[in-house]
Each structure stands twice: as structure tokens, then as C-alpha cells.
Design a protein that fits this description.
Layout lengths: L27 H4 L1 E12 L6 E3 L4 H4 L8 E6 L4 E2 L7 E3 L2 E3 L9 E8 L4 E10 L12 E7 L4 E4 L10 E9 L2 E2 L6 E3 L3 E4 L8 E11 L2 E14 L7 E4 L3 E5 L5 E10 L8 E8 L4 E5 L8 E3 L3 E4 L3 E10 L10 E6 L7 E8 L6 H23 L1 H11 L16 E4 L6 H21 L4 E3 L10 H9 L4 E6 L13 H13 L3 E6 L11 H10 L2 E2 L12 H7 L6 H10 L15
Parallel strand pairs: 1-8, 9-16, 18-26, 27-28, 27-29, 29-30, 30-31
Antiparallel strand pairs: 2-6, 3-4, 3-7, 5-6, 7-8, 10-14, 11-12, 11-15, 13-14, 15-16, 17-19, 19-24, 20-21, 20-25, 22-24, 23-24, 25-26
Helix pairs in contact: 4-10, 6-7
Length: 583
Amino acid sequence: MARLSLVFLVALLRATECGVISNKEPFVSESCRNFGLAFERMFAVPGESPLLECPLHIQALFDPAETPYNVTWVEERTGSEISAGPNVSLSGTSLWFPNISLQSQGTYVCVLRTQSQCYRQAAVLVVSEMTSGDCERPVRGLQWISAGVNDVLACPLKRYIRSVDHPSIQWYKNCEPLQEDEKFAPNEEMLNIRKVHLDDAGLYTCKMTFSLGGVVGQMAESVECEVHDEYLEKPRLIEPVNEIIKVERGSSFRKDCVVVVPGKGVPQVPVLWKVTLGSEESQSEEFISDNTSHRIYQESMNESRTEEGFVLVQTLSVSDVWQEDFYLNFTCMVFSSRGTPSGQFSLIPADPNIFLLLGLLLGSVALLFVMGVSLCTVFKVELALWVRTVFPFLYKTTDGDGKQYDAYIAYPRVLDGSSEKAEVFAMSTLPQVLEGRYGYKLFILGRDGLPGEAVVDVVEEALTRCRRLLLLYTSTSLCSPEALEWAEQQTGLYRGLVENTVSIVLLELEEIREPDRLPHSVRLLKEKQGALQAWKRRKRWMCCDWKTEKRLTSLDPSARFWREVRYHMPVRGKAKNRNWFSF
């Protein structure tokens, strides 16, 4: 069987924080999300045409209708990608062996790729020689059915019916073909056995004949059937049990009738709702319809299996409770050969709600509280600046804290267009607004340092005397090679993130379209506390100083931006620092 070899990429592209990420698909085992080995196996004998389906559940991974994808198969033993040939064929997401041999047995890996993701899962194909006879297969499953009831055997090949053309299934019992009669009713997915007897135990084989790509094939699997001599017991009605329920007129209402049927097998137990009408002298009973267009109807019954047996739930639904529905007896009837339990309930008008006013009051208080919290969240910056201005005595003064400057201004010193704009913003705009208008004291390297001093020494010494570090950056400045030698950035980030001796405020001067290109430390800091975006235009709720501030900056940041900068600057309070431990 001809196969194409997979060419694996053994050279991995090493991407730095500012590097370009490769878009080539890496080696499957290194890049694909591995779901391991599928639980289900495919069993075949030489000469058959088994279909090995991809075990990945595509709908659980993504929407196949909106996301393009492709599926390839790899033979795990050789590591080679499988291509179509005389002994194997690719059909959609399946791998088909038109005439299988013992050499085809093994593990096959289904690899599913989209534009951005890769998944893989392995499936096992078991090929065994027939040991005896022409229909007793060497590997078989096990199913059990219950005596005394109608039960079914599931065809193990039913999961392949929708993957082939013109499927036709024939059932066999102990090598004899089964036809529909009073005992058996075979169909495509299961074999119905009426009134199961202990003699119905034995070997059942489900054989499917089909065509795929114009080629006819066969596949089969066997089931060892065991009959358990256990009968269904008397149903137990859990609810309703003579209940009186209060409801409001005009409201909707639903009530479940819950029935437990202990035992094994498929219970044939109808559950119906009825209502008793009229007075005590002339009463009549009517079964409630399952027509959902009626005001009162019963929904489809829900069945679920438990360790004890089956739980049946039949729901009565009333879309609009009328006055005439009150004080009627609604009865749930269970029909079984082992018993017919029943339970009922009645509806009565609900008591007047004396707590309605209290509820409205509490609701109003809660609404006002939520609105207050929302307003405080939205206008947090404006409220904080207002409180600082009106009540400065609530905040401690910065005098005597050992600091000389309110903020250290660090900006990219790289000779490109965006950094030149950042330099104008740092050297001109920030001092005009923060120093000239609001009285903050800033340190800017090149403006406040002494000539002839070493840059590293100046940066180290100045940072110890600053209360904040305003780190300005553009879309390219932090990812340029020169940024690695930017002493202000490196020293400031180390003091802020490692030593925790200075608070860092990020000023983003341009929109960052590729956040992954930022240095790891800056990216983490931005994710943790955010960045003040001078480029972003926002809806202005407060425009007090916007016209003045617009004339001061070439970047034209919004008034909201300047308020956020002031919010993150040190608070110049008037309350004196107190030594609480002095006597």
C-alpha cells in the first residue's frame, strides 16, 4: 500500500518578545491538542470492508458550518500520512479499507486542522481471522436484555450508517438470518425482540452491506446476548400525592407527575393526566389532551434510566390559570399490568401578597444602590478628583516623605516618527499641563539632570526621588533593538515590579495593534492595571478644560485622558503625617 511520508519541521523558529511568529504548521505531536486513544474499537475479519471514522467530536470543538477544516490520517506505526490507494480510501473524515487484510491492523491517528488550531486522536482497528464457522466472529460485544418484556439489541454498526451510501442491514442469530415475524422485528439500528424468553440468549450478528464511491462492501460485528430473568416491578408514583397548591389567577403553571418503575428492560407504562369536572352529584372525568395549542395540555413524557430502573416524568402545563380551574381535582394515572397507582392535586387561589409594598420598597432601594455603584464606577475618576480638590485635608501631605519629584517622565529615545512625537509630548505637552496648570513637579532626563553625569547614575538617583514613573511608549518603541538599552525603561520596571519602590503609570501614545510584541513585563503590567491611552477618543461626559488642553498637545488626547493622568498622580493633601507610635 502506497503511502506519502510526512515531512516534519524539526527546526523551530525562536521568537523573541519583538519577533515575528511563524505561521507554518509545526510537527503534529508538538502542536496538536492530543485527545489520546479513543475508547471504541473497530473489529473486522480479512476480506471485509471496515470504515474507520475519525473519533474526534468536531461539533464540540468548533462550528464546522462556519470554520473550514481538513482531516488527514497518519499510521502510528510508521508515522506516515495515509493517501488513497488500492487498499485504502479516504471518504470525508473516514478511512475506508475496501478489502482488509491482517497487515492493516493497527492504530491510526486522525489529525484535524483549522486555520488556527490542530487536534488529534487515535483509533484502533482490530483484524482477526475467523476461528470457527462463517459467522462466529472471534471478537464480539456483550449486551443483555430482560425476560418477560419487549427489549432491543443495538447494532454496533449504527454509527456508520450515515457515512455510507445505500446501507442495508441483515441480522443473524447463531448464523441463521432473521426475518420479521411475531418474535423479531429487525431494522437498521436495532433488533426488537418481543416477549423476551431465556431461549433468546445467544450470538447475534449485525451485517451491513453498503456502497462507497461506487464500490460495494460489507462489514459486520457480533453481540453475545444474555437474558436476565428479571421483571419490571409495580410502578411507584412519587408525586403528586393529594396536594393543594396555591397559584394566582392569570399565571402559568406546570406540575410534574413522577413515576419510578423498578427493574430492567424497556417499560411499557403509559402515564396520563385527567381532570374531574362537575359537582359531587354529576361528576365527569376527561383525559387531558397532548395538543400544545390548548390552554391545558400534557407534554411529552420524559424517560431516564437509573440504577433502580426507569423514572418517567409526565408534565401537566396550564398556560393561563382561570377562575374555573380552582378546586378541581387533577389526577395522574399510571397504567401497568402490575398495578395502576394514581395521585392528584387541586389548585386554590393564592393569598394576597401583604409584602408587596415592602418588596417594592426594597427593590427601589436595591435599584438606587445599583445605580449609585454604577455611577461611582463610571465616574470614579471625576469623583476622586473632586474630593481631592474640595477636601484636601482628608489626604496626607507629601512633604517629608523624602521625595523631590512627583513623577519621572520616561519616553522612547529612538529616532523614528512616532518617537519624535513622543519626545514632543514628553518634553513640552506634559510639563505645560502637569507643571504649568496643576503644579506637579516632574523630572525629565536631559532637562533636569546635570551635564556630564552618567545616564545610568542619573536615572538610578532620580528614580529614588520620584513618587511615580510615567512610562511613555509607542507601537514600535518598546520592540525596537534600541529599547533593550533604554536605561530608564529597564531601571524603572525593575524598581516598580521587583523592588516595588515606585508606582508605574503606563501612557500609551499610539494604538497597539499587536499586544504580543510588547515586552513581557510591560504586557503583564498592562494586563494587571491597564494603560492610559492618549490616542483613544472617548465620549466626554465632562468637558470642563477640554478646549484649553486640546491646544496644549500635538497628540490631542481627550479631557478624560488628562483626568486619568491626574488621578494616578500623587495626592497633595494637607493632613499632616502623624507618628502613631510616639509617646
